[in-house]
């Protein structure tokens, strides 16, 4: 039921919330989320939907990524995720760790690079302009 609500609220054609609401809530555009979801599903089986021990569908990939992003983007606490998404604290923390590790694995070559002296100088200059003493 929480998956259906999530889809109805954010992803269905006549969703409750607009694209702007999505961006404000998750700090990214919906198409960026869709790309992230697709990419993490392709490399990490954790983000595939499985059945729980009772044979019912477990958390959907959408739910897992939304919960982890909510924790990162808004500093949401794990107990609030239990209330809104029905996901336990331990599952929330596992999901967050899995997403972070997967993002680094998938995007490190494209977006993460070691800083050089020029980068360091630029950052130090920025800090000095706001009163930070190195």
Describe the overall structure.
This protein is mainly α. The protein has one domain (2-129). 67% of the residues lie in helices and 0% in strands. The model has no long low-confidence stretch (mean pLDDT 86).
Please provide a brief summary of the model:
With 134 residues, this protein is mainly α. The chain contains seven helices and no strands.
Q: Mind sketching the topology for me?
A:
Layout: H1 2-11, H2 19-26, H3 30-43, H4 61-74, H5 78-85, H6 89-111, H7 117-129
Main features:
134 residues; mainly alpha; 7 helices; elongated
The figure for the number of domains is 1
Distance from first to last alpha carbon: 52 Å
Q: Which term fits the overall shape?
A: elongated
- Report low-confidence residues grouped into runs of 5 or more: none
Percentage beta strand: under 5%
- Helix tally? 7
The helix-strand sequence is: HHHHHHH
- Percent range of helical residues: 55-70%
Structural class: mainly alpha
Average pLDDT level: 86
Radius of gyration: 18 Å
Note the main sheet. Answer: none
User: What's the number of extended β-strand segments?
Assistant: 0
